[in-house]
């Protein structure tokens, strides 16, 4: 300690400064509780930990290490799971589907291609890719996507529907016809029957006829086209609107139909031969001769014909039409009768000479 007056060094315990003899004011030192405790801790020898304490401490440390390890593994597994989920087929497909719904076609293409890398032959992914390509204006590419799917999934109505839709956009009507012709699945054909154009039918069977005929054509659509000269019919041929009158001779009728989807039907061909013969003279009863009582004259009229008659002159179509038996007139008369067929052909006149006298 230094003297407070002359600042000379004073040894501990001296009450006066050895230099200037000034009184040195020593202060009694007091230890705090903390200081005493600290001194006691230093002075006391450390006790060695017990075996039980060491065992519990080791156990706690092992539990802590195991807990940390388990948590680490769980975090790793969770991370791997979510990574796989985020990069799975379903995740990519879902993103592509949502992007497609929002009209984000470029993003949809990237996502669906990523999905197809996981499962290249997946049906719903290929269908979605085709629809995206269609929206991007790449119809041919969209069709190329579906062609393998038709072979891979021949029972999928959805694949057929998308392909038919794309073919219709491209105007590939003959290809539509061929595609459905190659399909043997009744359910698919029934589902897309609007794309099927059945051939028209004719009301008159082909063959030879001895009278003039008309032919009616039938279909479940409006547009039927035909030719009568044996040439191949097209949509530029005669459009059917009413029954066709057949002329005398040979007629080859060829017809097609075109439905509302512009699909052309198979062609039908019908050959008709019309040979028109004049009807034979009618049969007249009774036999000619002399009669002495009231007698009725009758004409036998075949189906499809009408009879005309006259006395003492040959009848024409302007003469009296035969409808019922005719009373024989008195005296000497020549009765004439003719037949007129439905086609207008007229028979030669038949005649009977009668003499009636009461």
Automatic annotation (TrEMBL):
TPR repeats lie at residues 89-122. The keyword Transmembrane helix applies. Keywords: Membrane, TPR repeat, Transmembrane, Transmembrane helix. Residues 205-262, 286-347 form the GH29D-like beta-sandwich domain. Gene3D superfamilies: Tetratricopeptide repeat domain. InterPro entries: GH29D-like_dom (IPR059177), TPR-like_helical_dom_sf (IPR011990), TPR_rpt (IPR019734). The chain crosses the membrane at residues 66-83. This is Chitobiase/beta-hexosaminidase C-terminal domain-containing protein.
């Amino acid at each position: 300690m230094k003297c407070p007056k002359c600042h000379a060094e004073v040894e501990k315990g001296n009450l006066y400064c050895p230099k200037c003899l000034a009184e040195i004011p020593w202060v009694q030192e007091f230890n705090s509780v903390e200081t005493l405790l600290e001194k006691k801790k230093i002075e006391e020898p450390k006790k060695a930990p017990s075996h039980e304490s060491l065992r519990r401490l080791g156990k706690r440390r092992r539990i802590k290490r195991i807990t940390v390890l388990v948590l680490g593994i769980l975090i790793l597994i969770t991370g791997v799971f979510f990574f796989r989920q985020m990069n799975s087929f379903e995740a990519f497909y879902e993103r592509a589907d949502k992007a497609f719904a929002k009209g984000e076609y470029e993003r949809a293409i990237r996502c669906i291609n990523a999905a197809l890398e996981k499962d290249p032959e997946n049906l719903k992914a290929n269908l979605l890719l085709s629809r995206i390509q269609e929206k991007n204006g790449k119809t041919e590419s969209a069709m190329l996507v579906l062609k393998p799917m038709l072979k891979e999934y021949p029972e999928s109505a959805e694949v057929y529907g998308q392909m038919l839709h794309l073919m219709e956009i491209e105007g590939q009507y003959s290809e539509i016809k061929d595609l459905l012709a190659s399909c043997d699945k009744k359910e698919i054909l029934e589902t897309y029957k609007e794309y099927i154009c059945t051939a028209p039918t004719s009301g008159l069977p082909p063959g030879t006829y001895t009278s003039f005929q008309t032919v009616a054509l039938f279909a479940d659509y409006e547009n039927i086209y035909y030719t009568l000269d044996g040439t191949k019919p097209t949509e530029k041929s005669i459009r059917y609107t009413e029954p066709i009158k057949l002329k005398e001779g040979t007629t080859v009728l060829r017809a097609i139909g075109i439905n509302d989807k512009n699909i052309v039907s198979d062609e039908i061909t019908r050959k008709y031969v019309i040979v028109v013969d004049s009807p034979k003279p009618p049969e007249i009863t009774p036999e000619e001769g002399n009669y002495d009582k009231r007698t009725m004259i009758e004409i036998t009229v075949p189906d499809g014909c009408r009879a005309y008659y006259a006395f003492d002159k040959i009848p024409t179509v302007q003469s009296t039409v035969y409808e019922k038996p005719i009373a024989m007139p008195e005296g000497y008369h020549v009765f004439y009768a003719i037949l007129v067929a439905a086609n207008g052909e007229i028979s030669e006149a038949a005649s009977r000479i009668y003499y009636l006298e009461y």
